[in-house]
Amino acid sequence: MQNSNPSEIVSLVARHQARLRGLVRCLLVRSSDVEDVLQEVNSVLWEKAEEFQPGTDFWAWASQIARFKALNHIRRYSRDRLVFDGKLLNELADLAHVRLSQMDHRREALEGCLNELSSPQRQLIDLRYAGGYAIEVIAEMIGRPQASIRQTLYRVRQTLLACIESKLQSEGGAS
Amino acid sequence: MSSNTRFAELMSRMLDDAISDEEITELHGLVDADPSLRSHLVDHLLLDTLLEENLGHEPLTALIDTLGDTTSPGNASTSLPAKQQTPVVLPKRLGQRRILSAEVSYGQKYVRAKRLRPLADHLGSTSTTDVFVLDRSHTVVYHGAIDDQYGFGYSIDAPRYTYLRDAMDAALEQRSILVSATAAPGCLLEKKSSAAQLSDVTYHNQISRLLQRHCVECHREGGVGPFALDTYEDAVAHAPMIREVVDRGIMPPWFAATDKSHASSPWINDRSLSAKEKQELFAWLDNKTPAGDPKESPAPRSFADGWLIGKPDAVFEFAKPVKVKATGTMPYQNVVVDTHLEKDQWVQAIEVRPGNPSVVHHVLVFVQGADEGDGPRDDAADERSGYWGHLCTWQQHARLPRRLREADSERSSPPFSNALHAEWHSY
Questions:
Q1: What is the pLDDT of residues B242-297, one digit of tens each?
Q2: pLDDT tens digits, one per residue of A73-130
Q3: Contact B90 A14 (CB under 8 A)
Q4: pLDDT at B373
Q5: Using an 8 Å Cβ cutoff, are A66 and A24 in contact?
Q6: Which residues of A fall within a CB distance of 8 Å from B171?
Q7: pLDDT of A37-50, one tens digit each?
Q8: Across the interface, do A22 and B31 touch by the CB < 8 Å criterion?
Q9: What is the pLDDT of residue B80?
Q10: Does B61 contact A111 at a Cβ distance shorter than 8 Å?
Q11: Judging by DSSP bridges, how do beta strands B360-368 and B154-155 pair with one another?
Q12: I need a surface site. Which of A59, A75, B58, B253 has the fewest CB within 10 A?
């Protein structure tokens, strides 16, 4: 068996961080433990580096491990907390896997879509993501109730999703 | 309410980390019943991840990547190449109360700390027990020991001061941190030269933080400084002036004698720039004041109600205002302020706030003890007897050295007594 080069694995792991984070996030649903699980996934990928065949599909290999680790994590805390059941989780993982294969296209489309937002929409997104402010804080800053901020933010996200889809479709149609 | 509206509501609560267990169950029910909602769920979660990645501050992974790794791990077969990307992922949000430590797993347990060496070097880690608290824009807000339970030559049953916990509590509640740096006794780390990074200094990655630490307390809207220095435009507009006054040691104003034999300042509230900070500042000025990436900028400093020490427990004011001449300068004005305190009090910090900062040059505060207060009070009291603080408009506040506020201190004469004597001098 051809041994994989450690530096190659390291750079593959680094390049796939965003995708792995996305997959873990879809399974955990709550964002609080995502970084912990991602860390575990990274360390397993490193430990099992020798099992990876250079030239084969890294994402297929890594996403299996991430899925397994995330499900394991969920099982561990399922005694204390309510979680989605295994069947649904696997369906979500399949969906996420497909979406994440086009992560780079989606990221690119998102950048364009962000620029197309109206300025109040963009301001809200910036406060939430660039500023990292909690909804309570944003509500206070803008002087609107939290529920209304949440609702607007959700609508902006819907707009962005629709925009991304249409950009991906027109791209797909053109090529 | 349609299931779609309810789904939207639950999703927004989930993306905001505000969802309860009951709501998770409800969401599960909805998603289970309607397969089309599953892809909505996934789409939203992935969009959230992408937005965080696209707009949020770079995770520390990126910071470590850019620093590279210059240590040479011992075991060649499992070691990483000298210069590579290091996919160590550290918690991104301070809100999760995470401690940045060597606990980051990287497969081999003993490699962990080594993988963090570039980060430790970058942050200026001095020993193996050094901990850092970073806010979400990666500004170090606490650096030092976890607590004081162990030190060189002693160990006690329980810590008296929980520095790290206190710093994290203060940071989470957005209060100013009382003790933001301590020495961390432990195995010393070899010091790395950071000269190579000077060319990378930008406003957003370093200079904004330096200005926040040393300048914006006064140089901000409503501050006592004659102009603000809290934006890139402000800093660039005053660049020649900044070079001049820093070079000549006029700013930040700090005239206390330094002990050349010590590497660090003997003063607890030393305002002066360190040699490294000056080097960074001049490098930035030499490189034509590059702005850098706004994503790397620190969170803006906030000044609650204008107090620099946080909201004080007690405020003592002049009984009546002092009239100031329209032009010219005025000699010292002596004013005695009664504190009406019935017994001696320990003090953590004091701040002097002139009613009109634009006309006050500096203020000296003295304490008149209770025992001196029996006779008629001398307004021009002997300055040496109760000298307590030298508070200028450029040194508006002072955190007092630790021993002054320890209840078990052996100091027999607590400093804060029943009268303050203020002398002030106007421009």
A1: 998 898 888 888 777 766 665 666 666 677 888 888 999 999 999 999 998 888 88
A2: 888 776 655 566 778 888 888 899 888 888 889 989 998 999 999 988 988 898 888 7
A3: no
A4: 46
A5: yes
A6: none
A7: 888 888 888 888 88
A8: no
A9: 29
A10: no
A11: unpaired
A12: A75
Please tell me the distance from the alpha carbon of residue B232 to that of residue B290, in angstroms, as a whole number: 9
Please check whether residue B81 is in contact with residue A157, taking contact to mean a CB–CB distance below 8 angstroms: no
Contacting A residues, span 18-77, partner chain B, CB-CB under 8 Å: 18, 21-22, 25-26, 29-32, 35-36, 38-40, 42-43, 46-47
Say if residues A42 and A85 touch (Cβ distance below 8 Å).
Answer: no
- Please give, rounded to a whole number of angstroms, the shortest distance from the CA of A150 to a CA of chain B: 6
- For residues B229 and B238, the answer to whether their CB atoms sit within 8 Å is yes
Residues on chain B touching A161 (C-beta within 8 angstroms): 43-44, 47
Q: Which residue has the higher pLDDT, B312 or B400?
A: B312
Segment B3-10 mean pLDDT: 86
d(CA B211, CA B375): 48
Measured between alpha carbons, how far is B64 from B67 in angstroms, rounded to an integer?
5
> Chain B within 8 Å of A166 (Cβ-Cβ)?
no
From residue B354, give the alpha-carbon distance in Å to each of A20, B32, B109, B317, B364: 56, 65, 56, 10, 12
Tell me if A14 and B85 make a contact (CB, 8 A cut-off).
yes
CA distances from B318 to A88, A136, B203, B335, B354 (A): 70, 39, 41, 7, 10
- Residue A144: Cβ within 10 Å count: 13
Contact between A136 and A149 under an 8 Å Cβ cutoff? The reply is: no
For residue B382, pLDDT beyond 80: no
For the four alpha carbons of B22, B50, A45 and B42, in that order, the dihedral sign comes to: positive
DSSP string, B100-117: BSTT---SSGGGHHHHTH
Query: Letter for the amino acid at A76?
Result: R
Q: How high is the ipTM of this complex?
A: 0.88
Cα dihedral: B350, B354, B360, B364 (round 10)? -30
Q: Taking CB atoms and an 8 Å cut-off, how many pairs form between chains A and B?
A: 159
Element (H, E) at B233: helix B232-237
Q: What are phi and psi of B139, to 5 degrees?
A: -85, 135
Write down the residue that tokens 């190579």 correspond to.
Answer: B196
Closest Cβ–Cβ partner in A7, A17, A47 for B107: A47
Q: Which residues contact B253 (CB under 8 A, 6 or more apart)?
A: B271, B392, B394, B395
Report the distance separating Cα B21 and Cα A87, nearest Å: 19
State how far the Cα of B179 lies from the Cα of B263, in Å rounded to an integer: 20
Contact between chains at A29 and B12 (C-beta distance less than 8 A): no
